[in-house]
Amino acid sequence: MRFRLKAFGLHLLASSCALSLILGTLYFGWYRWPGWHLTEVAHVVLVMVGVDVVLGPLLTLIIARPAKPRRELKRDIGMIVAVQLGMLIYGSVSLWSGRPLYYAFSESVLQLVQAYDINTDEWDLGRRTNPDLAPHWYSLPRWIWAPLPKDSAEREKIVGSAIAGGDDVIAMPRYFKRWDEGLPELRTKLKKVDAVGYFFGPDKKILKERMRAAGFDPDGATTMVLTGRGRPLLAVFDPTTVKIKAIFKAT
User: Fold this and answer.
1) pLDDT in tens, 132-164
2) What distance in Å separates the CA atoms of residue 197 and residue 241, rounded to the nearest whole number?
3) Edge-to-edge order in the sheet of strand 109-114
4) Hey, which bits of the chain come out as E strands?
5) Are 49 and 92 in contact (CB under 8 A)?
6) Which of 48, 41, 47 has the alpha carbon at shortest distance from 19?
7) DSSP 94-106
8) Residue 166 CA to chain centroid, in angstroms?
9) CA 37 to CA 150: how far, in whole Å?
10) How far apart are CA 26 and CA 34, in angstroms?
11) Secondary element (H or E) of residue 71
12) What is the 8-class DSSP label of residue 228?
C-alpha cells in the first residue's frame, strides 16, 4: 500500500503543479475579476480539475502494484498521463481562445469582449487601422470605448448585423477609442438601479442592499450594467470623476 500511496502522491503533486501553473497564469493575466464571472468558464475548469487532479492520480493509485512489472506499470501510467495531457491541452486552448480582451462601453452598457468574439479579418483590420487599441496575442484586458461609426451607412450596416446575430461594433477593433474619450457620453448613460433593465426585482433588492452596505446611494444615477456570457454585473461609478468604484453581483 505504501508503494501505491507514493505513486499516487507523486502523480497528484505533478498534476496539481501543472494545472495550477496554467490556471494561475490565465487567471492573473486575463481572467481576474470580473472576467472569471462574466466568461462563465467554471465548467471547463471543473472538467480539467476532475480529469487532471482527481481521476488521473486515482487511477494511478489503483493500478500501481509493487508486483506489477515496471515496464507494464510505466505503460499504464503513460496512458493515464496521455489522457490527462489531452484534457489539459483542450481546456487550456478553450480558456485561451475565450480569454477576456476588452471591457467595452458601447451605447448604454458595458460589455465583455473575448478573444473569439473578434474574427480574423477584424483582428487584422484593427491592427492596420487602429494599432494602438488592436488586440495582439499578448494583449491583456483593456477598458475601451466602442462607439458606432459616424458614417450613417456603415452605422446601419453594423446595427443590422448585430440585430441579426452577427458582429457588433464591440467585435470591431478598428472603431475602438480610448476609454477616457467615452467618459463624457458614459456619464449621461448612468442610471439608478431601478432603471437598469438587466435585473429583476429580487436581484435589484440584493444590489441595493450591497450598495448601501458599501456606502453607495442606490437611488443615485451612478450605475451601469456590465454584461458577458455569465450573469450580468452592476458597475457603480463616481459621477464626478466617472471612475468605477465597485462592481457588484446580484447573487
Assistant:
1) 999 999 999 999 999 999 888 998 999 898 888
2) 24
3) 177-178, 142-145, 100-106, 109-114, 223-227, 233-237, 244-248
4) 100-106, 109-114, 142-145, 177-178, 223-227, 233-237, 244-248
5) no
6) 48
7) HHHHT-EEEEEEE
8) 21
9) 33
10) 13
11) helix 70-97
12) S
> Would you list the domain boundaries of the chain?
2-97, 116-180, 190-251
Q: In the numeric block, which cell numbers belong to residue 199?
A: 435585473
* Cα separation, 210 vs 247, whole angstroms: 10
pLDDT in tens, 34-55: 999 999 888 889 999 998 888 8
C-alpha cell at 62: 489503483
Q: Which amino acid, one-letter code, is at 207? A: L
φ and ψ at 58, to 5 degrees?
A: -65, -40
> How far is residue 248 CA from its own chain's centroid?
16
Q: What single-letter amino acid sits at 122? A: E
**How many angstroms from the chain centroid is the CA of residue 230?**
9
Q: Do the strands 109-114 and 223-227 form a parallel or antiparallel pair, or are they unpaired?
A: parallel
Which pTM value belongs to this model? Answer: 0.88
